[in-house]
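Subject: Predicted fold for Diguanylate cyclase, 356 residues

User T.R. writes:
Posting the sequence so we have a shared reference for the thread.
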Amino acid sequence: MKKAELPENETARQKSLESMGILTSVADPELDRITRVAQRIFGSEIVAISLLDNDRQFFKSNINQPSSETPRDISFCGHVILGDTAFVVEDAQQDERFHDNPLVTGIPNVRAYAGVPLSNPDGYKIGALCVVDTQTRQFSQEDLQILEDLGHWAETAIALRYGSRTPQQVLDDLDPAKHDMLIDPETRTWNDVGMREFLHRELINARLKHSTIAIYRFEIDDHERLASTYGNDTLKRIVQAIASATKSSLRDRDVVGRVDECGFACLMPNVRQEQTSFLGFKLCDTVREQCRFTDMNGDPVRITVSVGATWAEPEAKQHFKSNEILEFAAAAMEQAKSEGIENVVYRALPVPAETA
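User M.O. replies:
I've generated the structure tokens; pasting them so everyone works from the same file.
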């Protein structure tokens, strides 16, 4: 048996697959529809849409596959993701790569196999759509073209599933290790790494749905003075209050995260460019009105933030990485802070040279 080699970009491929959250998400009726159509067309006994995880092949949708997953090192689909076109085995018993494979010598007794690679919106091959028979057979060029067309349908369905989950659903799907890596423990919001990953996800979603996104960076005004006057414990409670207030004021599709000690980022999909500054001022209003503190004498302590804002069109992912956009918003925030307190500064992303 010849085990499939790992792709050269395996580490990045695996990270991209994990970030999608589809390994643990619920079954997708659209993928089941695709496998049913494939079975009707090909008449194959087994049809599956598989995802190649670290050490397993997980079947996201399948017909007559006897288990929900198999070891990756015996999978046929592991070979599929190494290429760009259909991978065909007409008689596995006569193929030196597979003749002694457990999937051939035992259940499900694979003889003929045809699979096409499935790519995610990042361009990584994450799995395969395959048809499998227990009798030898040949596949025509027309058969393979149909299989590729069904594969493109599956890619679209997976991409839409990837972009349809709310931030809370993404959070609920995180495994413990990923949770610790992406979530700020004090505010229970996304941290710097989490916000960069989430913006990357939203930029993909914006391109798929031809939508837009407003990006904000904001920071507590005079936080050094607050810490020296009232102590770090009070500043910590202020940070937590701001996180709670902004989360409760946002829509389900919006997301906020703590990206440094006293700074936050906020992402708002489907915002028009002319709304961007106005919504920045709404963030200021939310903090000022909902984050109320008093000192030891019972006197109110005014808590404000300054905001930097920018806006991304659907094609922004072609020209900017998520960390570049967040840094651009941070530069706008620094300008806002330099001009006083509770300011909002909007900066448009620069026009890429090739489109200028």
